[in-house]
Amino acid sequence: MWAWMRNPLLPSAEGPDFTALRRSLRLSDDQCAADGESFQRLSAPDRARVRRGFARFLAGSNPFIRHMVLRTREYLEQSTDRETGEPLLRPVRVRLHGEGDDEAIRLPPFLEDAYGLAEDFCRLLAERANSGLFRTMLLRRVGSTMEAGRLTVERLLDDWRDVNDEEEDEEPPADLKTLTEAERALLTSFLKALAANREQDPKLAAVRRLLLEQGWLELGCIVFSQFYDSAFWLATRLGAALPTEPIGLYAGASRSGLVQGGELRRMPRETIKEQVRDGELRLLVGTDAASEGLNLQRLGTLISIDLPWNPSRLEQRKGRIQRIGQRRETVDICNLRYAGSVEDRVHALLSDRLEQIATLFGQLPDVLEAVWIDTALGELARARATIDAVPSQHPFKLRYTRVQPVAWEACSRVLASDARLACLRGGWAGKGGRSATCWAR
Questions:
Q1: Is the C-alpha dihedral spanning 285, 289, 294, 300 positive or negative?
Q2: Tally of domains within the chain
Q3: Does one domain contain both 115 and 192?
Q4: Rounded Cα gap, residues 366 and 166, in angstroms
């Protein structure tokens, strides 16, 4: 704990604690470090002062928080370059669709029954499973598409054969692979509910309506799903409905390819990216393997066929088209969800704070993934507590709202890691001193 006194020890102006400590140690403000034995020389009250102040130092006075500058996308879009008068970042606005309470997709009765059976199964499984990932796996996949749910149930009944998808690396616990009689009965009833109506998932109709009736296909579109089962199903169904339209399927490993006429022809992902970049491909269906490191500026619309329970993935998806080089001033994004589903209930819980949290942190924090799991298992009070615990202000903003007088936007150099370390080791040099000069670069 005493190490925070060594380098840098903050100047007296930072508060009475530092004034008292410097007085006790006989250190002037131009001395930025106390030696390693200084803590032992302090009186008992001053040692208590150090212990009390340690948490405050970490939260508000450590060198990175003091000297790093937070620049959100909103700030960059609203600020202008002093030399050119142009925005620091050309704004690319987002027009959201499907966010209203009445815009969730209504399930026909047979699908409502199937969804209810999936919920009952997950509640039973939760009684003997510790992992939130596997307790709620079926609900996440049914919430994507009923086809993904159907395939998952078949694998669960077959001793969890190949149950992992691209987003799950760990194996299910061995004790879960032996289903109880009650669990098997629920899964069997689920399959019976879907058996005669597999082609009628309303999400397919919603995607087709956006692409063809709303003109999103003409603007170029990527459709995201977190599950390969959903992405493959959607790509092949769209391919059958649009036989002359090439559709890219962008997924992990060797699962990517080109769909035409409902048939998939395997193709390297690099080839698919080139075709999108060159304007040869205007419709792409991708798993979250496409949500990182893929630039899709030529596509002007995005559909999320499901809402990932890891909220940062939703931001990563949006970032594929809301980026530098996007030709449209406003991109259109639609997030699909079933009415009454876990995703719909979480949407209702988060709707009041979702935009504020995303604006505050630049994305949705991963801690909100727990909200989905708690909601799926009926723990609504715990879900609300998680949401309420997210700060209403960014930690940087709580202490530092203005940076002066350096024109940070005009800086042309970025410090390498070793240079940053050198600056930090330099302590709090006075005005115009070494540390100030380093950070001003």
A1: positive
A2: 3
A3: yes
A4: 18
Q: Is residue 79 part of a domain?
A: no
Range of the domain at 229: 93-99+202-373
Q: Which helix (H) or strand (E) holds 308?
A: none
Residues 193, 214: one domain? Answer: no
pTM of the model: 0.69
Task: Say if residue 436's pLDDT is above 60.
Answer: no
Based on the domain organization, do 24 and 56 belong to the same domain? yes
* Ranges 111-125, 160-174, 180-194: which has the least confidence: 160-174
CA distances from 50 to 20, 26, 151, 229 (A): 10, 16, 59, 56
Question: Among 317, 399, 411, 403, which Cα is nearest to 358's?
Answer: 317
pLDDT at residue 284 above 90?
Answer: yes
**Count of other CB atoms within 10 angstroms of residue 392:** 10
Minimal CA–CA distance to 183: which of 112, 128, 107? 128
Give how far the C-alpha of residue 435 lies from the chain's centroid of Cα atoms, to the nearest Å.
35
User: Which CATH number fits the domain that encloses residue 296?
Assistant: 3.40.50.300
